[in-house]
Structure formats: structure tokens, C-alpha cells
Write a structure and sequence with these properties.
Structural class: alpha+beta
Oligomer: single chain
Distance between the termini: 125 Å
Shape: globular
Number of helices: 5
Order of helices and strands: HHHEEEHEEEEEEEEEEEEEHEE
Radius of gyration: 33 Å
Helix content: 25-40%
Low-confidence stretches: 9-72, 274-280
Largest sheet: 13 strands, mixed
Amino acid sequence: MLIKRIISLCIFLAFTSPLHAVDLGDFTKDIEKQVTDKIKDGLSGTETDQNITNGNPVQKESTQNSDSTDNKNSSKNDGDYVVIHTSKYLSIDAFQKYFKNKVLTLDKTREQNKLKTTNDPYMVFKVVSGVLSDGSNYKENTVPTEFFYQQDENSNYVMENLAVNYYNDIYVCHHLAKQECSSGVMAMWINAFDFPFIIIHTGANAVGSQVLSEEGFKLVPAYVVNEGDVSYNPNQFRVRSYKDETMFSVRGILSDDSLIKELKGKTKECEVNPYHMDPGQPYCKE
């Protein structure tokens, strides 16, 4: 017992002497420095794990971003539709099933539609989507198409030869969850517009007793996403709608060309004349 007390006293004196107090203080500072360095390394991502290859940090960041992008490009299918966040857009396969080689009659769904005084469709054209376009062949796969549309409220139609591309590689981003984007949605681009159309299915839209658009397919303008936008990806052609706001509703899907032939026999051929006072209005040949 006496020997144990002597040893304990020696240890106590050793650790309470001024010399060892300084040493313990330095040791504490050294531990704090090591912990701080570890935290800094963890925050900056410079600490190397023995099981991870210490490659190019830029390459690693690029890979992570790519993985993140791939995840956000994922979507689920709901029958004929590609579901992106809370919206459902008509898929390429479903578009071909319902619209390929069919004549579409369209009505406007915006405010000006309330001025309509006739029961005739606003626009008529035939979908010829046998050949789809992508970023590499869109010039070759442009489809010349005759469009018939009302020039006034008295059912006077004009015909304009336009070009249409049916894209199979455009990524659609959601207007709320702007980084949730997916391919597989049909994007139809008519060269009279500065944007392609994507297609949704909605219920009837009415104001009071006046129905602005019936239940069914609607054409939604999808604006091209440019650099600097949160949805932008330099490796993908991306578009995004404005709140899924519709421009046209599909009034009828016809299996024969009789309406096209009827309209063609009694309309003027028109084209956009760049020298016209209003280039946005067609110039009709007499």
C-alpha cells in the first residue's frame, strides 16, 4: 500500500508541475488544430478516403452533376402520358396512336375565343408524323403541311403552307419544379410559331355558361430554355411551358381527308409576306 501511495504521489506531482502543464497545453492546442483541420478538410472535400481514388476534382464534380441531372430526368409513365411533377404530357407513342395521319380540327382556348361567332373550327391540318425529328436531322425531316384557318369571324378560311417537325428528343421541364425534366413527350413545332407545342388532356374550360374549350386534348406552348435558366442543360434541348397554359384545343380527330379537300376547293392560298405592313398577317394571292 505504501508503494502504491508513493507512485500515485509521484504521478500527481509530475502532472501538476509547471513544465508538464505547458506540455499538456501544447498537446491540447495540437489536438484542436487537428480537429479544425479535419473539419476544414471535410467541408472542402479535400480529405482523401483510402477507398476512393483521388481523381481530378473537376471531373468528380462533373460526374456528380451528371448523376443529379439523370435523377431529375427520371419520370414515370401513366398510360399514354409522361408524368412530370404534377403534370401529364402526351407521350410520343400515344401521339402516334391518336394523331398519326389524322386530320385535326382546332379551336382557340385563349380569351379571344370568346369573340367567336361561328361554329366552325379555327384551324384544320393533317398530321403526317411518320418520320420524327431530332437535333441531327430536323432539316431533312421537316414535313410540309397545308394549314387552313379562319382569317375573320365569318368562317372565311385561308390556306398557308407551313413546315412541321415532330420531335422525339426534346426534354420537357415542369413549370413549377423547373429542374424536373424528361424526354419521351411529343413536341410538335409548326414554323409559324416561335415555340413547339406539347399536349395535355384537361376538362372543359368555361366562364359562366360560356364554354371556352371542351374536355379533351389541348396544345400547350413550350418555350425553349436558354443558358442561365435554372432548367438549362447544355447537353439537352429543353423546353418549359408557362403554367401549362393552353393555346388550342383539339376539337375533332378525323380519319379521312374530306374536310381538307372541301376547304382546299374554296380557299385562297396565303403566305407570310415579309414586305407586308404587318408580317404576322398572311398575304393571300388573288
